[in-house]
Fold Phosphoribosyl-ATP pyrophosphatase.
Amino acid sequence: MLFLDELREVIEDRRKNPRVGSYTSQLFASGEDEIYKKIGEEAIEVILAGKGQGNRRIVEEVSDLLYHLLVMLTLKGISLGEIEAELRRRHGG
């Protein structure tokens, strides 16, 4: 199992079983609009990092963006397998 799959499972667990002090649980409780807002913020931070903040910063910001995208996918009931299948389809495989 890839770590992204493991992380997706943890996110799903936080959605179904909220925990006090969990950032993920707080995101779900704050609602869909807050999740989208965070994705937008993180996407901008990825762009800024790419424009000259160095590779380490890019890795950090892409990690934040991927995490928030996983939260949205979990909210919408979309699996990583569906994303992978679409990427494979686009690649011709």
